[in-house]
Amino acid sequence: MASRLYKVGVTALSATIGSVVASWTFDRWNSSHTVNNAVARPPKRKRKLISRDEQIQNLQSGEEFDVLIIGGGATGAGCALDAVTRGLKTALVEGDDFASGTSSKSTKLIHGGVRYLQKAILGLDYEQYRMVKEALAERASMLDSAPHLAHPLPIMLPVYKWWQVPYYWVGIKCYDLVAGDRNVKGSYYLSKRDALELFPMLKKEKLVGAIVYYDGQQDDARMCLAVALTAARHGATVCNHVEVLELLKKDNGKGEQVLCGAKVVDHMTGKKFTVKAKCIINATGPFTDSIRKMDDPTIKSICAPSSGVHIVLPGYYSPEQMGLLDPSTSDGRVIFFLPWQRHTIAGTTDLPCEVTHNPAPSEDEIQFILSEIKHYLNQDVEVRRGDVLSAWSGIRPLVSDPNKDETQALARNHIVHISASNLITIAGGKWTTYRAMAEHTIDAAVKEIDTNMNGQVELDEYLQMMSAIKMGEVSYSRFARMAELEEQKEEAAQFKRKITVDRSGGGL
Ligand SMILES: Cc1cc2nc3c(=O)[nH]c(=O)nc-3n(C[C@H](O)[C@H](O)[C@H](O)COP(=O)(O)OP(=O)(O)OC[C@H]3O[C@@H](n4cnc5c(N)ncnc54)[C@H](O)[C@@H]3O)c2cc1C
After folding, report:
1. Strand, coil or helix: what is 272?
2. Is residue 36 situated within a structural domain?
3. Single pTM value for the model
4. Which residues line ligand 1 (CB under 6 A)?
5. What is the residue range of the signal peptide feature (predicted)?
6. 8 A C-beta contact, residue 138 and residue 146
7. 81-127 residue pLDDT tens
């Protein structure tokens, strides 16, 4: 057994080191062969947030937008922010409210995926490895860009078999190694005694010890809103409760029909109107096929939705600052307990489902999670149905890649597809990689539309979400320094202004 373990450990470690070196060499090669189009431009002053009525007026003004994004979840909001900070005239419409879809129903983790890295190493799968690496880099930039909505979270992997200690330890160290200088904090081993001290409700019997590693946790609904509002402050027109009913086409002069706008309805007033745009982006998550079929009713569906249920339990089910995750239970599923706003979220892996606007968890799914979590808790903790304070179900927009005709297998990462009439569909991926997904989508959009922006990215990784500058943690970042300078200028200007007192009214 010891020699087998030794072999597994050495193979895993050498595969990771090999992949890290290969990736580093590739990245260096790639960066030295990429023409840097970015042109240093002075930062633009952000405008004040305008009201929804004004946003609607902008939308109905008849002016042509560079891009019209459909969907105000993580993906659509990210696209709006990326597009507007590149200088594109941007509009976003969301049929319901921002983050009302999957983006507020996630597990709230900002992660690369320990399980995906395990698959990458054991299967010597380079593509999977690149996905984890990308997500780990995005994890760091998300934590930096919105420290008021996201924070590092230690997660414990309980170990019940002695041989799993070196196996998990090597695996988690590889996770840290792949993150490189973008790692959140280093992982460590805990003895049984220390593990129980930190997580007293953990099952003691046969516990050998635990490994603790770090990922991020975010307030997903507020994060989505922050991204949409930040886009609005940079000048994007973003409207909730505006649904796309129909896509409009025109002849492009070469006898081809291309998209030129959309017919929408404002659900607050019932008014229908048309929005003109050079390019339309479909970022509707699980509803991706409904928009694709508005463009071309004959195309095949690509979305294979699967739903995941979470339950909220009282805070005493988990320590306030430590999550628990078993990345592969005996029957191959993931189970987790995570602290969340002084409560505990518990859940397990997703199951295939139908797409609906308000998916609701079934009683069976709730009972299943309750029965699963019993295996990880001390016998003294009685798991009762009455402890379930709330539950939700979210639909994961898994898709097959329409760029690959030969396979109907589900894409492991996000896909960007451009239809014959120029509908750009961005689908799949995960919350953690929303920024990278947006960047790839807008890269595709700028190629489609007549613009001289040509891939310029402004502020990119230094971009902070709205309200982030109020937090002490980011006061040293470039963006915060710029904001401070702006504020100082504003204060100085106000100081110079004459103070006038209005004496016409009564009161004080
Ligand atoms: C159970 C579960 C747990 C998850 N946990 C994590 C996690 O911990 N970490 C992580 O990184 N990822 C996680 N994910 C994945 C992540 O949540 C999703 O990938 C992401 O939220 C998808 O965002 P989206 O914007 O593409 O879709 P959505 O958030 O669903 O947004 C699409 C929007 O389009 C709108 N729309 C649809 N049709 C129209 C129309 N005709 N006109 C206008 N608007 C329209 C909808 O109203 C909706 O708001 C999880 C997913 C699930 C299901």
Report:
1. strand
2. no
3. 0.84
4. 70-76, 93-96, 100-103, 105-109, 111, 243-244, 283-287, 308, 350, 394-397, 429-432
5. none
6. no
7. 999 998 899 999 999 999 999 999 999 999 988 888 888 888 888 88
